[in-house]
Amino acid sequence: MYGGSGIQSKRDLEIEYQAQIPILRPSIHARRANMTVKFQDLYGFTVEGNVDDVNVLNEVREKVRQQGRVWWALESSKGANWYLDAHVSSTLKSSLKFSALTNAITLKRLIRKGIPPNLRPKVWFTLSGAAKKKSTVPDSYYNDLTSAVEDKVTSATKQIDHDLPRTFPGHPWLDTPEGHAALRRVLVGYSFRDSDVGYCQGLNYVAALLLLVMKTEEEAFWMLAVLLENVLVNDCYTNNLSGCHVEQRVFKDLLTKKCPRIAAHLESLEFDVSLVCTEWFLCLFSKSLPSETTLRVWDVLFYEGAQVLFNVALAIFKMNESQLLTTHHVGDVINVIQRSTHHLFDPDELLTVAFDKIGLMTTTNISKQRKKQEPAVMAELDQRIRRLNSVNEREK
Amino acid sequence: MGCSSSVPDRNTGRAGGINPENGGVNDPKNLRVKVNIMDSGVGKSCIVLRFVRGQFDPTSKVTVGASFLSQTIALQDSTTVKFEIWDTAGQERYAALAPLYYRGAAVAVVVYDITSPESFSKAQYWVKELQKHGSPDIVMALVGNKADLQEKREVPVQDGIDYAERNGMFFIETSAKTADNINQLFEHSALSPSLYVNVALNYVDSHHTELIISEMVGCRSPFMLLLL
């Protein structure tokens, strides 16, 4: 079971990071040739980039350090859990005291600027509601769950076993027997907690990244639970992905509204944005964006909610507007988008567009849009099931 | 090797483009073909990576939604064919996304794992789905992958041949691991829409006709390639 060995692995992981990730200094040859170099990022992922990318990553590292100092200063002046008070008060706006209000505003702004990696586990766990969720069940819940289901075999566990080595292959911790075992327990445990979800491909990446951030399996598990049960829309990962289909439709409407020229151009190419967005919404960008950029998106996601994903997806299109408008077919569009996402090493570049250049999208409005799309999605999925059945019938 | 691999991507900023859905040939230099593949874990991504990068990577990443790759090959008549490959998620619940990728496809290659009878029936399911809902002009091929695992074979070659013949499909067994028949598969895929390609070639009379091929995966074990 998870215990001493897990803690050991956490320590190993940290040591490994410190040992392997000093300031990156591309070799003189790489600089001269402007060639592609491979290096490890803050979370141990191997990334390929040119010398400019390396420089951007070094700048990001410095910004992360500065943010760390800001957070620590706030902790010492306002108390260790000041953000928790700010968060609670923000739900009771009418009874806000001035200090609580300023705390709430400070917190939102701070979170959009990024939570320092070493504070992430604590801040996420508290602000997302994971801590509260965990507190409603006995302390032994996770250990009991994982030991109870350890030897069970279901279609979900088979798929999980198949996918473990194919989740971030080559990562110095995730792609080790220990990493696989930890990820397996989280995913298998969750597949039994919610059998409607079971296991959906995509969750492997999400859970893996949660493990890397939270450092303990149990906290990663609760983050996954709060994410699927409270943060994201319902049924994103259930057997017909209906929630995800709803989000795709809402996103298409938003793109038409917020980026009409891009939307019109893509339509003329018969490019369906789901071709790129499905992965974004199911992996929460973990498979597309560099790790620190993804985690900056998650910082805001866990605090502000699922509509953040729309901001970020819209920002990716908007940042590439001029290039997208020159594309002539589907493949070009994908290439533009992929080149852009893979090189978004500077999280602020993306988040500035996402939150300052997209214009206001209220939660109420987004909820309304979701409600509006639900019937159409259900009808479409129903129709598909009937179609499949008719194929099977004829077979008989 | 029947084709030169790793020709660099030359597909940027090309004007016009054929729109196969309309059957229009606006730009003779740019004939577009889509390849879609469906599968989970039978080696679909491996086939694609073998074809595009010339490598066998048993630990390719789990595909979510779809991922995209491209490759240009030169055919024997020295025309070049550009494949745009959609490699899509294999899990059953992603099946509803399939039409997104096979919409309008002209050629489909459905792939199964010769060591898995389950994947063979899944492949047959995709053939039926495509016959019913793909483009009426769709040309299909059937591929049995993992042909290097002879000792674990559970689907006889003859079963594949018979099924393909009954459904008017091209049949080939491949191994992404040893690279057997991989290039042949893609070459044949590029040539398959014979009518369409011939029309286009005659029309262009050019050595730079490009077939742009997209690929997708959709289902649990079969493996499907669609060309359009």
From TrEMBL, chain A:
Name listed for the protein in its UniProt record: TBC1 domain family member 2B
InterPro entries in UniProt: Rab-GAP-TBC_dom, Rab-GAP_TBC_sf, Rab_GAP_TBC_domain
Occurrences of domain Rab-GAP TBC (ranges): 114-305
Gene3D superfamilies: putative rabgap domain of human tbc1 domain family member 14 like domains (1.10.8.270), Ypt/Rab-GAP domain of gyp1p, domain 1 (1.10.10.750), Ypt/Rab-GAP domain of gyp1p, domain 3 (1.10.472.80)
Gene Ontology MF: a single term: GTPase activator activity
Top-level taxonomic group: Eukaryota
TrEMBL record, chain B:
MF-aspect GO terms: GTP binding; GTPase activity
Pfam families, sorted: Ras (PF00071)
Positions of region (Disordered): 1-25
InterPro entries attached to this UniProt entry: P-loop_NTPase, Small_GTP-bd, Small_GTPase
Top-level taxon in the UniProt lineage: Eukaryota
Keywords (A to Z) from UniProt: Nucleotide-binding
Protein's UniProt name: Ras-related protein RA
Organism (species): Sesamum angolense
